[in-house]
Amino acid sequence: MKLRKSWLALLGTVVLVLFCMVLPFAWFALRDRQLDTAIWRTEPAADFLSAAGRENAVARELYVLRQQSNDSPYEQPTESATARDEVQPYLAALRSSGVLPGTFLDAADALVAQATQRLMGETENGETGYYFGAEDGRSLTMTVSRYGTLTSLNGNLGLTEGFAPAEVAAAYRTMLGLASFTDWEDAEPLGYGDPAPCYSAGAQLYLVANMDRGYFSMSVTSMAPETYAGL
């Protein structure tokens, strides 16, 4: 009987580990299906993106979001007990995709769990922003689009070692399903710190990761080629 109980306990542990490993991938698959089947309120012009861009759910969503910017009122962030739960799939996806060093994700998990401030609110373009802050100055801010695309992540977790902006940017592209675009090019660094920006004309996306004196950031936004050329 004891042996049977030991095997049952071991089996339960294995099932739990497998569930945790599969959860991020299942969540992203569901999000991609939502993006692919979404009915856009504004139908863009037929030549709005390259053929590859039109087939990519994230590139299409962010392009349409750019066209619809400022069509929703800004909602003042409010304290939210659900913020912790809502960001967990994104933190899990960042970990499984290797976007951030493990030390950063461990610190982010700890901050989200212990944060004295947990705020969330809707931005002017309908995205949802999350903020977690601690009394010692540590902070984490996350922005998610209407259909679940992680469009930005930044903060100060009291860490700097291991964050390589160019590597983070590349892993972030892969996590978002944008690595298939072959025209990504390094852009001219702008601002302070050690920014690693890149641009894809086919996707019309500008993506950047940066570390500046302990403050890390990563973001992706839709940008027209003429706007990019003027940077």
Summarize the structure in words.
The protein has a nine-stranded antiparallel beta sheet. It is built from seven helices and nine strands; from the N terminus they run αααβααββββαββββα. The longest helix is centred in the first third of the chain and has 36 residues, at 2-37. The model is unreliable at 14-20 and 33-42 (pLDDT under 50). The chain has one domain. The protein is an alpha+beta fold and 231 residues long.
- Rg, nearest Å: 19 Å
Rounded average pLDDT: 84
Estimate nothing, just give the exact number of structural domains.
Answer: 1
Q: Residue share in helices?
A: 40-55%
Assembly context of the chains: single chain
Which structural class should the secondary elements be placed in?
alpha+beta
Distance between the termini: 71 Å
User: What is the string of helix and strand elements?
Assistant: HHHEHHEEEEHEEEEH
What share of residues are in beta strands? Answer: 15-25%
Which stretches are poorly predicted, pLDDT < 50 over at least 5 residues?
14-20, 33-42
- Order of strands across the biggest sheet? 1-2-3-4-5-9-8-7-6
Query: For the report, how would you describe the main beta sheet?
Result: 9 strands, antiparallel
Overall body shape: globular
How many strand segments? 9
Please work out how many helical segments DSSP would assign: 7
